[in-house]
Amino acid sequence: MNYLNMNEKKLLPVILELNILLADYNLYYQKLRGFHWNILGKNFFDLHEKFEELYNDAKIKIDEIAERVLTLQHHPVSQFQEYIKMATIKEITPLLKDTEMVKELLEDHRKLLTQMRIVLTHADKAGDEGTIDMIGAYIGELEKLSWMLHAWYKNTSDQFDTSMIREA
To answer: How many CB atoms lie within 10 A of CB 89?
Structure first.
């Protein structure tokens, strides 16, 4: 029964790309857990708390992505061995310096954003406004988080591009 009134054939690429995003988020989630457990140094309190906040958010997104696949009348991928095969995000050791952890997360954000945009392209072709709405919100949140982590990573003497600011 097609209660969604969408073309099943056009939805197949959306479902495939959502499953890749699901795989990416599962590896991202586990990486955050590992960083949370293994952070050391002067930034321990800030990053330990931030990593927990991020993995809790990732856990919610994992569930929402899987439920979106189910809404589109398919089963989501749910085995970790499949996630590892499908994901663009790769496992690494969690025994890194704080700055290396943040740099790694920024690279993962780049991969997540790339995959989200691929999902959006296919969802647009399929007329899948529900997926477009969900992923569009994720993009805005992840872009803002990436800016904040990038600002944390920079030196206090660094500046962003000021070419658009007019001097009075």
So the answer is: 23
Instruction: Find, among 79, 81, 76, the residue nearest to 65 by Cα.
Output: 76
Q: pLDDT of the chain along its 168 residues, tens only? A: 578 888 899 999 999 999 999 999 999 999 999 999 999 999 999 999 999 999 999 999 999 999 999 999 999 999 999 999 999 999 999 999 999 999 999 999 999 999 999 999 999 999 999 999 999 999 999 999 999 999 998 887 777 788 888 776
Q: Which two three-digit tokens encode residue 136?
A: 């569009």
Report the distance separating Cα 100 and Cα 143, nearest Å: 19
**Residue at 121: amino acid letter:** T
Residue at 3 is within a domain: no
Number of domains observed in the structure of the chain: 1
Q: Is residue 21 part of a domain?
A: yes
Least Cα distance to 126 among 18, 20, 24, 1 occurs for 18
